[in-house]
Specification:
The complex is a heterodimer of chains A (170) and B (212). By secondary structure, chain A is an all-alpha fold. Chain A has helices spanning 2-5, 9-31, 36-52, 63-91, 103-116, 120-131, 136-143, 147-167. Chain A has two domains: 1-96, Orthogonal Bundle (Rna Polymerase Sigma Factor, Chain: A), CATH 1.10.1740.10; 102-170, Winged helix-like DNA-binding domain superfamily/Winged helix DNA-binding domain (Arc Repressor Mutant, subunit A, Orthogonal Bundle). In chain A, helix 2 crosses helix 3 (36-52) and helix 6 (120-131) crosses helix 8. Chain A is globular, with a radius of gyration of 17 Å. Chain B has one domain. Chain B has helices at residues 3-12, 21-42, 50-54, 58-80, 88-93, 96-111, 117-122, 126-148, 156-175, 184-209. The chains are: A mainly alpha (170), B mainly alpha (212). Chain A binds chain B through residues 4-5, 7-10, 12-13, 16-17, 20, 40, 43-44, 47-49, 51-58, 65-66, 68-70, 72-73, 77, 107-108, 111-112, 114-115, 126, 129-131, 133, 135-136, 151, 154-155, 157-158, 162, 166, and chain B through 1-21, 81-85, 150-152, 154, 211-212.
């Protein structure tokens, strides 16, 4: 984490890949089983929060409790949202949507919808870097932007994405 | 988007780095306090006999009591701004405030005859105190809430309430320079009542503004 905070992207990627299973385990424990797609959503939301709030971790402190606290915060938030959605559904006597699509499809569809909430430029950059696996430099060349502008847009897009998760998906 | 894809995007954003919460909130609080202090000086001002008052016991002790609230509440707030930071210590330290106030009350009850108790408790400035402290708390509370948005408070309403408490304590510290009621009986009664309002406002604002 110390190296990651110094801006070492490779170290940071490795750290996030290490963290993700632990976050998933925490989320699953609090959530209970049977919410596959929703669990992965909360995992992603937690990773985003870890990323955007990593300046609240103090060097030298144990990382585990800090991550655990963020994960719990996000799970509780998600459960509250879920409860609200169910209430709304019951109040309006709306039937729950049929659960035919597989969890993975559901997962992808939700995420696509979230990315669709970003502005076109942000969508372009997030897709280019995350889905197509391009580097910032390649993305900058392709879109004829400076690397700094790509970085700034990416950062704003991630913040916007966190806000979209927070608002819930309905 | 798969989680692995998201991680790619996050890793690409590794260079952005923001300031730790304390480095944002303490300057924000200082700025809020300066604004509130300037507002106090520009309006009702400080009492004329400050120099003489400083030589008494009751006037300085008033600030000791208020600092017994301000310091632990600010430390607690900085802890609440960071996930999993230990908050129990500063929360317990908040007891310094009632303890210091109670010590003052006991001393005052011994120092003055019982027929003076009620007039000293009621004082001459209760209404001003109840008005001015919440007003002076507006700037520090706003500054703290804005600063807290850079943090990651996992308990938004509680964190907002503590921000209100800290802002109220700072406001009380400033107001103390104006108020001529120095009796611990007055301070222990009206100051906490006045600080309740920013605390409640902070809790309500916190539960809305401090979500992340």
């Amino acid at each position: 984490m110390t190296a990651a905070l110094d801006g070492d992207a490779a170290a940071y990627r490795a750290l996030l890949q290490d963290i993700a299973p632990a976050v998933r385990a925490t989320v699953r424990r609090v959530f209970g089983t049977g919410y596959g797609a929703e669990i992965e959503d909360v995992v992603q939301e937690t990773l985003l929060a870890i990323h955007l709030k990593r300046h609240t971790w103090r060097m030298g402190e144990p990382l585990g409790p800090w991550i655990g606290a963020i994960a719990r915060h996000k799970v509780i938030d998600a459960m509250r949202r879920r409860g609200r959605r169910l209430e709304v559904a019951l109040d309006g006597l709306v039937e729950e949507p049929e659960a035919e699509t597989s969890e993975r499809d559901e997962d992808r569809r939700d995420a696509q919808r979230l990315i669709a909430g970003l502005n076109p430029r942000q969508q372009d950059i997030v897709r280019s870097i995350s889905l197509d696996g391009r580097t910032v430099r390649e993305t900058a060349q392709r879109l004829e932007m400076t690397e700094v502008a790509v970085r700034v847009t990416l950062h704003r897009a991630l913040k916007a994405l966190a806000a979209l998760y927070r608002k819930g998906r309905e | 988007m798969r989680t692995g894809d998201l991680i790619e995007a996050l890793a690409a954003d590794a260079k952005t780095r923001r300031t730790p919460p304390a480095a944002v909130m303490l300057p924000a609080l200082a700025a809020g306090a300066v604004v509130a202090g300037a507002a106090l000086l520009a309006t009702i001002g400080i009492r004329a006999d400050v120099a003489a008052a400083l030589a008494t016991t009751r006037f300085p002790y008033k600030f000791v009591v208020v600092l017994g609230l301000a310091i632990p509440s600010i430390v607690l707030l900085l802890r609440l701004a960071r996930p999993a930071a230990p908050a129990r210590g500063p929360a317990l330290a908040l007891l310094a405030f009632p303890a210091l106030a109670a010590a003052g009350i006991v001393a005052e009850l011994f120092a003055v005859p019982s027929q003076a108790w009620a007039p000293r408790l009621i004082g001459n400035n209760a209404a001003i105190c109840m008005t001015v402290i919440p007003l002076l708390a507006v700037a520090p509370l706003t500054a703290l809430l804005l600063g807290l948005r850079q943090g990651a408070p996992t308990r938004p309403a509680l964190t907002g309430a503590v921000a209100g408490l800290a802002a109220g304590a700072v406001a009380a510290f400033l107001y103390g320079w104006h108020c001529s009621d120095d009796s611990p009986l007055f301070v222990a009664t009206w100051y906490p009542l006045a600080i309740c309002l920013p605390t409640a406002v902070g809790a309500a604002a916190g539960s809305r503004l401090l979500r992340w």
